[in-house]
Amino acid sequence: PGAMSQAVAKEIPQEHGEGCSRTSSWGLLATAGVGGTLVALYAVVTPFVTPALRKVCLPFVPATAAQIQNVLKMLENRSGSLVDIGSGDGRVVIAAAKKGFQAVGYELNPWLVWYSRYRAWRDGVHQNTKFYISDLWKVSFSHYTNVVVFGVPQMMPQLEKKLEEELECNARIIACRFPFPCWIPDHTTGEGIDTVWAYDLKHSRGYETKSLEIIPETES
Q: Which of 52, 126, 151, 185 has a Cα-to-Cα distance from 93 of 20 to 30 A?
């Protein structure tokens, strides 16, 4: 019995040690699995939330259903080409294409552009849409008559100047979330973050011309 007790005593710690080793191995595998999943998720999600513009930090924030409806309301009785500056996942471009516009989106984030193309194909409007991977500051918008912008306050003054220089007088610019600093909107709809401002460039230029004519008379 004494020898048997000693043998059992020797085996018990060994079995316990093997159990701890198995537990430790499973713990390492579980940790590695969770870590790998988080890395993969980060790799997929990061392109959708990183800044879409280089000059201004403009993260991807999907347009709400109300914002899209307000944009479409501002496009009623309009025709011609349409461009969405910073088109994100393409929902505004696709919604405009469904209304008959030849719609184009410019987006710096390639993942969002590829996803937009897939969505357009899935919704059956890929023939009326185009998506380009491009920095908006390096693109001319001179041949578009309808422009949609989801911007941030920091970019609006410079973008206002760029569009003023490039667009024709018959262009309409639709700003979402934030208005342009100097232009006076011709139409406004929505509330809060869903507010949309529409600017007819011929009127904005008219205001500038009028103010320039008044200045000399005031000075004299």
A: 185
